[in-house]
Structures are given as C-alpha cells and as structure tokens.
Amino acid sequence: EGWERPDGGPFRQRLLVVANRLPVSAVRRGEETWSLEMSSGGLVSALLGVKEFEARWIGWAGVNVTDEPGQKALTKALAEKRCIPVFLDEEIVHQYYNGYCNNILWPLFHYLGLPQEDRLATTRSFQSQFAAYQKANQMFADVVSEHYEEGDVVWCHDYHLMFLPECLKRYDRKMKVGWFLHTPFPSSEIHRTLPSRSELLRAVLAADLVGFHTYDYARHFVSACTRILGLEGTPEGVEDQGRLTRVAAFPIGIDSDRFIRALELHDVQNNIKDLKERFTGRKVMLGVDRLDMIKGIPQKILAFEKFLEENAHWREKVVLLQIAVPTRTDVPEYQKLTSQVHEIVGRINGRFGTLTAVPIHHLDCSLNFPQLCALYAVTDVALVTSLRDGMNLVSYEFVACQDSKRGVLILSAAQSLGAGAILVNPWNITEVALAIGQALNMTAEEREKRHRHNFLHVTTHTAQEWAETFVSELNDTVVEAQQRIRE
Ligand code: G6P
Fold first, then answer.
1. Where would you find the membrane-spanning parts of this chain (predicted)?
2. Handedness of CA 45, 47, 52, 53 (dihedral sign)
C-alpha cells in the first residue's frame, strides 16, 4: 500500500533497498507501542537523501520481537516510514550480526586482524556463524520476495548481505539485483584468509551490478575473483562462462541541502548561539565517529595530547569535542575500545585540565540532527582520521555546514575531498599533531580557498546523484545482458 502515486504523477521506479539495519531503530514502549529513533552510520545518512524513487527499505529494526502482537504493531509503525522489518531472533543476531558480520567480516575488510586469543576461538565457531549468516540472508530474501513485483529494482547493501544476490536470483532469475559495499573491499591476499572466501564471492557475483565507493575497492574485488575463483576479469567486471557481472565504482555523497537548510532552523540557530557562548575565547576542534576501532579515536586523541604538550600557549585556547557514538556494544572488542578511550581521555584531562576547563569533552552518545548541525557549524577544525574507512561522510556533513565559518578539515582517507583538506597519515601521531597546528594557524584566505573546493564537491556529488547513477547503471546492465542473450 502507498506504492502507487495517487495523483497520477510521473512514473517513479520502485526500488527495494535492502540493508541489515533500517534507517530507524525501534524501542518498545508498551505491548503494542513502539517509538522509532534514527539509526546512525554512513549508509543511513546517505540513503536518507535518496528521493527520486518510490523506495521501500527492508531491514532489521535492531530489536528482538518474538510475540505476534508486538511484530504486528512494529510492522505497522514502520510502514509509516516506508520500512519493512525483517525479524531476527536473539540467537541469529548473536551468530550472524555480532559474530560473522562484526567480528569476522568487518575487521577483515578493514585490515584489522583479530587478537591472537580470539583467532582460534573464532576458527572453532566459524562454521556455525557462517551458517547463521547464510540463514539470515535467506530470511532477508524471503521478505524481499513477499514485496517484490516484476520490474522492481532490488538494491542490496553491505557486507551483511553478501549472500542475498544469490538467494534472490534463485527466487527469480530475472530480478534486477544490485549489491553495494559500504566498506573497503580488501586486497585479494586478505580476502584469501577467509574460510568462506569462494562462497562469498560467488554469491555476490549472482548480482547484475556490484558497486564500491572507490576504484581501488572494485579492483580488489575483481582480482579476488580472478585469483581465488579463476574467473576472467574484464574492464567491465567479472565474466563467468559468458555471463558478466558488472563491477564499478560509485562514490557516495550526502544530501547536502538537508544540512544547508537545517542551519536556518530556529533550533539549530539557538544551539549555535549556546555553543558559541560556551566556547568563547577557544577554538573548537571536533570529532564525530561511531566508537569503532577503524575510526582511530585513540590515535586522534593521542595526537591532540602531543599538540598540547608541544604548544603550551594553545592549552587554554582550544577544546576538542569528541562525539563517540556507541555501536555494537555486545561485541567484546568494542567494549575494550570504550574503556581504552576513556582511560586516555581521563589521563589527558587530568594532565592539562584546569579548575575551570578541560581540553577534551568526550561524549559517549549520538546527537540529534539540530545539535549535530550546530556543532558542525561552530567548529574551527574537524578531525576525521579513520584508520581505514569505506567512504567517510562526517567530512561531507561538516563541509556542508561550514559555509559561513570556513573551518579546516583534517582528513586521513583522501578519497574525494583530497585537495581541500589537510591530509594526514592517521597512524603517525607526530604528523597529525603538526596538522592540528597548521589548521589552527591557517590564514583566512587559505581556509576560504580550501573550503570553496570542498563545498563545491559536497554539493555536486550528492547521495541523490549517487543513487540515481547506480540504479540507472543497473537498469542498463540488465538491458544489455538481455540483448547479449538474444544475440
Ligand atoms: C557502517 C556500515 C553500515 C552500518 C553502520 C552502523 O556504516 O557500513 O552497514 O549500518 O556502520 O553499524 P551498525 O552495526 O550499528 O549497523
């Protein structure tokens, strides 16, 4: 319901977006009462900007609901947000999401090894986690098939759903299926170390179009297919007995207008005023990250400490606000990281704090949209220093909110904003500390020049454009494949 345009307006392609996590997470307030909260993460923030399609999201709402009245009520509440839930029970979540996705694939795709003591344990539990992963992917496919109509585009997202293209094509060979990875795809030498390396590649290759954020990730995927599966890599993609899976790069963006417009809102203006008053006389440095190993939060904070150590005159004139959004809190590695970060922040604040001020405000929370926009707008220097990231969108969001301030971006993964940012090696604390000094001392002309470059990029490479390009390429790929079969 709600799919047809009642006003008979222009045709909009039906798009089923399938991702592990829905853009909203559900919180139970009563037997049949649910409240919905915004989820965090790059994928959600990008896809919110996609408006060209008659789109529905299919995914997990982040809760375990086993009773029928609860499931029904949640399905109804989500329908208003154009979302369709996949109900995963606790055991599946434990094995598929915490286990295979977040403890195996996520670290592997970001080149982070498992700690030695976990490695053997993981090897033992691998088979059951992999089975749960396949089962969960089939559960997503079942929900897709309930809602699918001929001609729909089905767009599968991320490392959680690498089996989904295969499950969907088993259901209907003619279904238009795209798969997009929001993380890096590692070198084939890393992918090789995965027990299920071949099954995963084959399952993804069932898609018509496979997309990555960068050309390098696409290249890594193609070479994994040629080296591990022995298939043929072509400039177009991967060929298996005459069937082509198109592989290409589609760099993501944000809905920049949403941020620019938000700056005019009364709430945001008030927040900006409050923040300016609170930090009068100090330069504001900002980090916004999920509290994840790949985000390089401890390294960033240590670099800030080094800067304070070497630049005593800045100690009372600068503050670092680090928003660390809690994430995957049931996974032990994430719990360890939380205590590690708290320990470092406590030590530095003890060392450089005064009775009236501390150098680091570290918050374990997510901010709502008006708070976040205000914070971006008052920031002088943003520190986006992930150790490795698919495509970091915090840098884009910051730039979109900076048109009056023209703050400086310190960035570790060049990807697309390279020329406007100060680029750093996030592993090198000395280099990041120097970059902080350079950013704080940068002249207004230089800031203006760099900001112009970034702003132009962020406002022209948007999430809308990204999604349209992917979907139209997927439509074309399917048409071309049909022509080839006819020939
Ligand atoms: C990254 C992933 C997303 C994921 C997000 C948040 O951005 O690419 O697929 O949704 O992190 O992580 P979570 O595990 O909470 O969904």
1. none
2. negative
